[in-house]
Each structure stands twice: as C-alpha cells, then as structure tokens.
Design brief:
homotetramer; 6-stranded antiparallel beta sheet; 8-stranded parallel beta sheet; alpha/beta; 12 helices
C-alpha cells in the first residue's frame, strides 16, 4: 500500500522557496540519512519552480521562460540542477537520494506550461497537441506558469500520462500536485485524471494535493484519488495559523487512515527563508519577517508536533536541515512521540475552546492510548484531560515530552504549550 | 456521574403522542422490568402534554386549559394520571416505577404556561411573579402552551428552580426539556438556567434537550450544560430519515462521552401511533400513515440499532412495549450489540457515500474493536470494511446479528440492511 | 379614489407614544384646523395602545389588561378617552374631528387580543370564536398584546370584518395597521384579509401598513392591497436615519402613484417625546435622548421635507402641534414646496453618493419640473444638478425654500441642507 | 456632449459573429445610409475578433495567432479587411463610413494580447513592456485572447493610451469594450483607465462596456466613466430573455440620461447567424437553432422595440441589413416610436407582473407623455394603463404601432405583443 503511514520527510519550500538547487537538496538528504532516517523520516521533496532558471525567492516571475522538452514537459533547469544535463532530468538526483536509503519527491502544478500551448507542441505518445489539451481560461490565481487542462478531452489524460511516465522513469516516489486541492468543484475531474496517470505509471508514487483548504465535503473523493491533501492554505510560523489548525484537525480527523491522510502542511522549524539575505530586509509578504529562523517558540513547536502526530498528519520538515540546532534536532527525533503516527488510530478532540484543547487516541494494538492537552491561551494555564474523555482503564501514564511518569492527566502549561501522555 | 453511559429506556411519544395515561405507563414499566431490564433498559419517560386533560392524539389544542398549581407549575391531569390526585403529582407513579427497579422521567417545555403569566401567579419561593418572568414574545413555533422566560432577570431562574425542586420531590430521574436544543443562540442562556436549576435540585436528574437539530458549533456548550441533546428533528419510521442520520452521526460522533451524549432520537419500532383508531384513517401529517406498526423493515431496524449502538446514541424505545412481537423483542435484547453502548469508544465513520457507510470503534478495554457496514442503497449490495479502516490487528471476527464467526469483513446485504463485527 | 394624493396629517406617536389622550388629540385637531388645514393637512391619527388604560410612555406593558368588548374587539380606554364612555368608542371623537373639517384615523395591530383567544370570546356576526381565529404561534416581535390570525380559516376574515365594520360605524377615515408591512411572506395573506375587510366596511378608509421596511419585491402586492406602506423601520430625529432614507426612496420612487404611496414615516419636527418629564432622564432607548424637541437641525428639516415632498411620501407630523415654534409652522406651510405632493410625478434620483444627491420630477401638467439638491456630507458643499438630469427646457427657476429666482441649478449648502427649484 | 441621446446603429455580432468582413461592413453601411439614416441610425460597429485571420463562426479559437503591430496592438486581419493593408488599420474603412454620413465603431477586449506579453513587446510611447503591463492571472472567462492589465502600474495606462490614440488616428467614433461591465469589483480600476485613455485620445469616442449584467450598485461609477453599459448578458432572439429584460429595465431606468445609457443589448431582428450554412445544422449553443432569421415573432419584436425606446436603451441592430424584409424595415423606421429615444424622460414602469407590464414616460417638452402596455403572458390579454399611472391630463391618444387614435389606454393584445400611446 502506498502511504500506509503518514509520509515523513523534508520539503524545500520553507527554506528555499522557488530557488532550491541540487546542492541544497543533496545536503539535506545527507543530513536526513545521517540524523533522521532512523526515526522514520525518508522523503526528500523538491518544491516549486525547478524548471525556471531565474527563480531566486518565494516569488514567481510572470512570462519567464521555463525549461521544457519538445513535448511540453517541464525539465529541471540545468543551471540549478547540473545533474539534469543531457536530458537526464531528475534521474541522477533521485538515484543519489535512493542511494542514501531515502525517497525522492517533486512538486508540480496542475496543467501544462502556457508556452507549450501557444507553441502547439505535440503531447508525447499522443495524437493530440498541448494546444488541444490546454484550457486557456483555466489559470492559477497565484502562479503564472500553466494552463489547466480540458479534462473532458482524451488529450488531457494523454498529457498527464506523459509526465507521470517521465517521473516514473526518473525514479520519483512522491508528487506534490499544486493549485488543485481547494479548487473543487471545477478541478474534481482533473484530480481523477492525475490520479489515474499516477496509478498507472508503473511506479509507486505517493500523490499529495495542494494547496488547502480542501473542502471536507469532498473527503471521500480525496480519499479515493489521493494519498494526502492539504487541509489549510500555506502554513507558516505564526501562532494564529497554528491555533487555527485545531479547528481544521477536528473536522478532518475521522478521515485519516492508511493510504489517505489529511495534511496540515510543512513544519516551519529551524532555518527558514534561506533564499534571502539575512538582514531582515526584502519582504515577500507583509505578514512575516524574513529573518531566517522560525518565529515559533519552543512551546509552540511542541504544540505543533503534538497535534500533527496525534492527528496523524504527514510530517514534512520545512527548515534547512544542516542548520538545525540541538532543540530542533531533538524535537524531530522524539521517538515515542513520533510513534503516534504509526500506532495511534481513531484520534479525535474531546473538547476545544478558545483557551484549551484536548485530544485522545487509542492505540491500534489495544495496549493503551494517548491523551494530549494544549494551552491555546496566552497565559499559563492548567489543562486537564476530562474524566469522560479517556474511557480506557489505564494503569500508568508517561508524558512524552519530558519522558516522565505522571499520576494525573493534568499539566500546568506555559502559553501555547502542550503535554501528551502515553497511557498503558 | 449522571449518564455515564447513554441512557436506555422507553418514551411514550411514538405510541401515545400527547395522550399517554398512567395505565399505559405502568404497563410499559411492567414489561420493561420483566423482559428488558436485564439488558440495560431502565428509563420510563412520560412525554408531552401530561398536564392537559383533553389531549387525544399527537396534536396540540390551542388555548386549552392545563392543570397547574397556584404557582404556575404544571401538574399531571388527574383524569389521565389518577394517582396524581390530591396534589401528589407524579410521586406515586415514580414510586411505582422505582419499585420495579427502573427510573422515571418526564417531558417539559421550556418556559411557563401562558395563563400563569396572564394570571400573574406568584413564583414559588420567589418575590417575583410569572408575569415578570415570562417573555411574551418568546413562543414555541409548534406548541401553543408556554412563554419562554426573560433569562436576564432573576425571576427566570426562580421559576426554573421552583419546577425542578418539585420534580426532585416527585422522584423524577430524567427530564426531557423541549423547544430548546435547536433554538441557539437565543436560548443559550435559557439552557444554562435550566441546567443550573437541574443540578441544584438535590436529586440526580438526567437532562435531555429537544428537539434537534442542535447546532454542532455549540457542542462544547451542550456538553457542559446537558447530558443528551437531539441531533435531529423528530425521527420517525421513514427510511429517508434513517439514511439522513448517517450524516448527522458523522458530525457528532467525536462529542459522545460519559455524561454527554448526542441523541439520535427514539427508536420507532413495534406498535406505534396507538392513540388512533387503527383503520388507517385520520392523519396528523401527510407524510406518514397512521397504521399502528412500524414502517421500518427488519433490515432497517437492524441498521438503526447498529448505528445508534456504535455511535453510542441514547436508546429510547418508541413502541408500546406490551405489544412487541418476537422480532422486536429479540432486536432489543441483542446483548453483544447493546454492549457497544458501554464498551465502544472513539467511534467514527471511515467512509460514507450515497450507497454505503462503514463505521469503526475500538473497545475501551483494548480487547478488540467493532466494525459495522451499512447498505444505504435500494439494491442488494456487498459492503466491505476497507483495509485501511481497521488498524487493529484482529484474530477473530463475530458478526453480531447472526452471532456467527466470519473470515472477512464483508457482507452481501439486502437493501437498507447492516452487519457489524466484533473483532478480537 | 382613496388616497389620490399622499395623505397629510398628524400622528400621536412621536410626541405621546403609547400614552395619547383625548385631550391631546382634540388640541392637535384644533391647531390643525386653524393653522394647517389650508395647506392640505387633514388627518388626525391616534396611534398605538389606545385600549390600554395604564400606558404612560413609548413602552408596552406585558400582560396588561386591555379594554375590549364581549366580541374581543379593542375599545378606547375610557380613562384616557372619556367620550368613549357608554360603548360609544371613537365615534364622539371622530365626530369632533369631522366637525373641524378634518379626518380621523386610528392605529391597530394585526391580529386579536391574546386574552380574547384565551377567553374563547365569540366573533361578532360569526359562528366562530376568537380562539379559533387566533394563531397561538404568531406573535409580534416587539409588542405583547395580540395573536396573529389563522388566515386560511374563515374565522380570520370574520374577525377582521367585525373590527372594520366597527371602525366604519365610528367614522374612522384612516387605519394604520401595524406589525405587518415587513412581515412578508408569512403575513401576505393577512394583508389581503385586512384589505378585504377594509374595502367592504361601507366607508372610505385609507389603509396604511407598518412598520417597515416593506420588501420592495412585494411592491405590486402592496399597491394592490394597501394605500400606503412604510419603507423603513421607525424613523426618528437622527441624521443617520434621514441620510439612509435616500437609498430607500430611490428603490421605491417608481411605485408612488394615486392610491398607493411608499411611506417614509412621520416627520419628527417640533415638540417630541412629550410623555416624559422634560429633564432628559428616562430613556426608552439608548439611541436617542428624551429631551422634548427635535434633534434635527433646521437644515436637516428642510432636507427631510424636500425629500418627502419630491418623492411624494405621505406626510404625518410627529410633533405636538400646539407647541410649534415659528420655524416649524413655517416649515409645514411652504405651499409651493407642498405642491410637489400633488403636482409632481415620475420623481426619481439622478445621482446619489455618500456626499450628495439630486432628484428630479416633472410636473403632471407639463408646465415645468422640479429639481432638488441635497448635501449629505458633514461640510459645506456646492451641489449642482447635472446637465444631463434636467432634459426639460426651462426658462425660469425659483428656489422654493428661499422663494428667490435662480440662474443656475447649483447651491452652496450648509451640511445636511437642501435646495429645490421649480423650473418653468 | 458625447452620447447626448442613446446611440443607434448596427453591430456585426448577431449576424456574422467573430467572422465579420469588410465587404459585409460596407454593405451594411450602404444600406443604413440609404434606408435608415434619416431615422436617426448612424453607428456601424465591427464586433469581436477582427484581428483574427481564421475566425469563422461565433466561437473563439484558443491559441490562434492574432495580427498585431510591433507594440502589441491588434490590427485588422488583412485577409478579412483588405483596406487595412500596409498598416492602415481601420482608417480606410472608417473613412468610407464617414463618407456616407455615418459613424464608425469597433469592439475591443480589455487587456492586451497574451502573446504580446509572452513576447515582451514594448508599449508604444512608453518605457514599459507588455510583459510588465499584463496580469497573467487576469483572463477572460469566455475568450482566450487577452491578459487583463495590472492597473496599479503606470504601464497599464500607457498601454490603453497607446491603443486609443491609434483608434483616434483611425477615425473611430465608438468603442465597445468587452469582458468588463460585469467584472466589478476587480475591473473597477481598469474601467477608469480605459475611460481616461478614451477621453484623452483627442477624438470624441463613445465608450460602451460589455457584457452585462453590470451591477446596479455601480450605477454612479458607470455613469461617470462610460457612455453606455450592458445591463444583461448577451441578448438573443428568445422570449425568455426578452421577458427577463423587463425586470432589468425597471432596476436601471432611473439611471438613463444624456451621456450615460443603460444598454439592453442588440436587437436580434431580421437576418441573423449569417456566418453558418443555412441548413439548420451546426449549433453553437443548445439553446438556439442556427437558422438565419430571427426567432422572435412580430409581436415580440414590437414589444422589444417599445421597451427599448421607452426606457431609452441604445439601439444596435443585430441583423444583416441588406436582407431586411418589409416588416423589419418598417419596424426600424417607425419615427414616432423612435422619437421616444429623444423626447421621453423620467421613464419608469408602473406595474409589472408575470402577465403584464405598463410603462409611462413624460416628454421633456412638457407636451404630453407616453404610456406602453405589454402582454407578457402566453395568451391573448387585455392590458390597460392603470388610472393611477398617468397623472398627466391628456386630451388625445395615438397608438404608435397602428398610428390610430384611441379613446382608452387599453388594448387587447396577442401573446407577447405591446401597444404604446402618445398622449397629448
């Protein structure tokens, strides 16, 4: 089964934006193999704009030329990914990652490059052209590169087949498809085509849909056609966004299970925004500064990891791994905590207010359960698991951040902090 | 704890409407004590209009005189409840029910009788009058008897105290308060006052709120102030309503737990609508006929019981118990099935389409779990539990309606039928 | 034709609220006959609560006893209307008003008195009772006195006939029916019944519907069944409300015509709120103080009169007439301005912004037209009629507030002031 | 003043779609000069796709090459407009039209050609490029040719100036700008830029905005920045659309006046859809057939002309003029009817139901008024002007379709027919 457990890995967006390079990818893969692999981390994912030679920040350049083959398929910009030279695409880089015992993923946008349509390029292995497959009125609201496809025409599936077959030949293990998960209903059919192309490309490829929020009314459709799908818009290191995730997690938790995972987005921890000079200048958004380290407090990072793990969200690290400090590395290598991703099931909140939240999840093996408490307020606060919430008759409780045994399911928490117990 | 498990019992509405009598209540109590008590059934609940001497069907008579004491508190109509003579209220009947080892409940409408306001009667134990407590603009949309209260005034709490103290003196164990659960936000404060009066009356009284649908956004408020609350409008023996319950159950399931239970409403099984002549004439609604037996097929009744049990809804039998046939009695005494009400937790659907639905629930003791499949279509259908849905590693499966062991979690089901497995 | 022109008169609400007395009515009628009649003013209207003996302010007293006859028809409280003694109702007062050459009107609430239903009083001239006609679930949101009627039953028309026949016998010329104009769709049928009773009572009675805003989608229904209907909620002496009327007037202007007039509500000029001690204490609403004189500036009063006249709204003076000062009397006796109510037609705004508004209306006789400019801003401002707005080729312009000739259709206006020209 | 009266003319869309040619334009201009000019018709407007060499029907061809100059300005396709050879653009054709005593208009889409952006062409007379002015995310929902502009950048105004200056040099008198009138709020600024470029191009050019429905809340903005704007989506020869226009006309009528005219769209009369083989085959829409003659009955055409004239909508004939039959020519040359466009003002409906509608309009010169009745039902029906509707005291009535005097303002009308009286 593809994605039996929530995928865990690293993604280049939070630290390198549209400007990720092969060198950076290799460095992060090396780090993961050395420090994280033993804890379950395995995917190395190259995010957006790898075909655009001049991308330098988190922004997109309208009408920029993108590298593509004669069939309108984007290929890595060789100036950024040297091993892609001579038409080898991502194969050499994927081979390198595989050689470390890891898996390799890439980002794509739905649709095909606008210029492939204007140039009327042929679709590989098809009688149709890109001009026939492209829908000139289907454009992404935030990225200028592509046209969506006319999904009622056979040309559309032909195009998607042509790219997934290429990705399979490169050795891709994970595709994050963008501009699609929140685009219901008009992208419903496009999701089905992409899924069909992915499932039939001859290689096990995890299919991840972005950005969110995907509509919860489409849960069954998403579970059938994708392995993970974003439940939020882009998540960054702001408390407001983290707090908001509790409501989203509540709506989605019943839909998590082997092969289909609601995705709370990357973990913005450690060294972020590394594609900028670290002088605090040059904003790409008024909402966050550009200094290069996560704005999350340690408490907030515990809260994030606790929620992501108990709800069994996929875990994709956003920070530049080689720059991790001790705290960050320790955060990401808390084995008993990460075990929830594999051992918990039927996780759900038992209460949620503006000030606090409590989650509970049994273990699949029947040997106990987990209970987490979150202080969502801005003041120190004692948060307790309600008696009604843990119907499992436990004998021993261990708090997983401290590693200490506990008599009561109650904790005095700093603002935005969390505690989580393993109950046996 | 009040309502540690979902309450199970009998309610007079489905079979006797507004016309229930003491004789009927005693007969149903006798039957329950003899045939059902051993399976967990215990509440005997007298539904609406017990203070109205002339009620004869499911309808309400505008401007009818209701029996009340000199403090504007409704008291049982003696012509219908003879033991209430001499101001004894429901005490003698409650005593009788207690004598059988059962518990006794009554229905009330929020507010106070309109005539108690127009007559400016004093509130018992208060310096205020009913005219001061009543809000002349707060009337029920479907019942003509009461005025809601001005909940910002102390007179309102005084009135609610006066009635709950009376109910405690009668020995009432369960109060179903009507015209309130779906009346958010304007009844939010009224719920709090009723809860306060109930909690402080000196007796453990289960507080149940009707009718639904209560708004799921108010889940925390409901959990705090009530023991159960309706998640639907009145539920009757129509497949359309039963099918619709699957969506409601999905929204509410995370909110079930000791002390607070989302309520899917009475079970319309067996002999219903017994307050009419059984000639099929005299409709009180164009939507259902008046014949006296449930319109649900046996398959539909299995589906209903399975869903109510796995979601841990309260169970209130709607039929006239002494008229139960073998099927109905057997349906209500399936011990392993009913065990889910006490032993399951963290129940949730894992998929739901127009055609089928699957639920899963672990056991609290860690010894296995439950999985149920439902055929929601109108044709025979094989319904299977997805592999991703049961992460518990089970060794043995028993189907609880047949009592037979099973190799696979898959069943060929007639239209509207269900199967449910206990997995060890 | 009833209401060939927009009715003009006086109404007791703004100055005496629910506490109007016969003495006050007579004094206002005397004043109108002496000072206003020659300018077209003719209706004297007794507003709400004339059947309630203890009403003293603008508030309503829940569960107060109201005077009614043995058929559940409200009759004037004799302590407040002495001439109503001996069952004469409003006949003596109406006779007095008629003797002055004026017309007499009263206010009613839709429905019948609640206690008439609870007492099951018979309906005059009908086989039915008030209990049968009353709908116990139809109550006014802001007044506690009445139940709306079950308009599908013949008893409802019987009741409305019984009251309109009584009003005709009293000599009533104008009925303002309340709790109805904004209550579409549920009161649509009730409007039709009231209209039918009014049209068939044997006397010409103007039928006015309140409160607003009536829905503009129902314009044809209103035009068919009523002579005037409110286009706003209660209008008081606040600039915010006056400014808001420009948008409402724009929506409704095409619906004004002989027999059917959109009504912008009473004119709060002169001595208001006379039912309070004039110490500025005792608010019935946080939004306005209780001092006894209009809060409108003179400029605002000109703006109000100009808009009401050019849009041809009914004009009902809200102030206590005998207390008028010179300004107020002059305001109300500007003949050339008031002539617009009779001579203009096809009036409409030609532009409207946050800062200014311009209206134009031809004359019916083809001899010229009117153009008005309004300064809606809080600063002095030159407001001009756009060239495109007056397609009539005029030779002479007279400004109607100053009475002066004018070369250009442009005026430097103080904040909230207006100018209006008659163009020949 | 530009557009002192509602423009009247001919537009190529209804008969030739995207495939209009110079030959056709000249033939229609010749006809107009000969048969229609004396009645006020004067504009000859070339509609969409004149820069696209291969357009053949009403459809648009994605990714088709369009003729443009080296500054990204579209120019007429020489194969369709031979006189445009040698860079002369529409100048020779405009000269020809002017020589006939008529005026010349063209259609444009907001924005600039997509390929002008992808090719990064310079903007004429600007320091910026088309790539800088174009917004890659602003595309038309129904046409694939253009990108909208980044209206906050100076490059946007530069581009619009560059095209309007070109149009002025060609001698264009009328520009119909498409993909904009219903695109509020996001196109509000784009309308302002286009208006500014139009007003400053050195030639009087009528600015018309399409398609509708423009939002009535934006009436003041539209009146300020445009001369006409569509109040509906495309109007064709279907009764459903014509009936629907009565509601739109009611909302918009107060906004008609010199310089600013709400536009009910072209008149689909006579020979339509001439770009198809006339075999009834080949639908471009499931809703209408392709036969080449209007589907409107004669009655419906009278209704359409009556409504358009009394509301003072612009009049643009949609049929191929040389193919007019007698009825059509007579319809378009009813002088007394067309006089309403110039002589009426303050037009408005006085009633409108599903079955009938009545409009009234005074004359600007004070000498009478107009009243029109419409039978909107599917059966013969007597429709009368309500007495309350015509407050002008008329002495003589002439029905303008029959030319006959009339005693009463009432007519027995066939289904969908109209009558209109001139009242003196």
């Amino acid at each position: 089964m593809i994605a039996q457990y929530p995928p865990m890995g690293w993604n280049s967006w939070d630290c390198y934006g549209a400007a990720v390079t092969e060198e950076t990818v290799r460095a992060n893969a090396d780090y993961m193999a050395k420090y994280l692999k033993d804890y379950g981390w395995e995917y190395i994912v190259v995010d957006i704009q790898w075909a655009q030679p001049t991308a330098a920040t988190h922004e997109y350049i309208p009408f920029a030329e993108m590298d593509m083959d004669e069939f309108g398929r984007l290929i890595p910009a060789v100036n950024r990914f040297p091993s892609a030279a001579n038409g080898q695409g991502f194969k050499p880089l994927a081979d390198y990652v595989h050689g470390l015992g890891l898996k390799f993923g890439i980002h794509i946008m739905r649709g095909l490059p606008r210029m492939a349509a204007h140039r009327r390029l042929p679709i590989y292995g098809s009688e149709y052209t890109c001009a026939q497959a492209a829908n000139p009125n289907s454009v992404c609201a935030w990225n200028p590169d592509m046209y969506g496809l006319k999904c009622d025409l056979p040309a559309a599936l032909d195009y998607y087949r042509s790219i997934f077959d290429l990705y399979a030949s490169w050795g891709v293990d994970y595709v994050k498809c963008d501009d699609i998960a929140r685009e219901y209903p008009h992208c419903k059919r496009e999701i089905e085509l992409i899924s069909e192309a992915c499932r039939n490309c001859g290689r096990d490829i995890v299919l991840s849909l972005s950005p969110g929020p995907a509509p919860v009314e489409q849960a069954e459709h998403l579970k059938k056609y994708a392995n993970l799908w974003r439940i939020t818009d882009d998540f960054w290191d702001e408390w407001r966004l983290l707090k908001g995730m509790f409501e989203r997690a509540e709506k989605w938790c019943v839909h998590a299970g082997p092969g289909h995972w609601p995705d709370a987005d990357m973990l913005p921890v450690g060294a972020l925004r590394q594609c900028y000079e670290q002088d605090g200048q040059g904003a790409d958004s008024g909402e966050r500064s550009h200094h290069g380290w996560t704005n999350f407090t340690e408490a907030e990072q515990r809260t994030m990891l606790t929620l992501w793990c108990i709800m069994r969200s996929p875990l994709m690290i956003g920070g530049d791994l080689p720059k991790n400090d001790d705290f960050t590395l320790k955060l990401l290598t808390n084995g008993p905590l990460l075990a929830m991703e594999k051992e918990a099931w039927c996780a759900h909140p038992v209460c949620r207010t503006e000030e606090e939240c409590v989650w509970v999840a049994p273990r699949k093996d029947g040997k106990g359960c987990y209970a987490a408490v979150f202080n969502l307020s801005d003041e120190e606060r004692i948060v307790s698991v309600p008696h009604s919430a843990v119907e499992y008759a436990w004998a021993r409780a261990t708090e997983l951040w401290s590693g200490q045994p506990s008599d009561a399911l109650s904790a005095k928490l700093p603002p935005h902090d969390a505690a989580v117990w393993y109950l046996e």
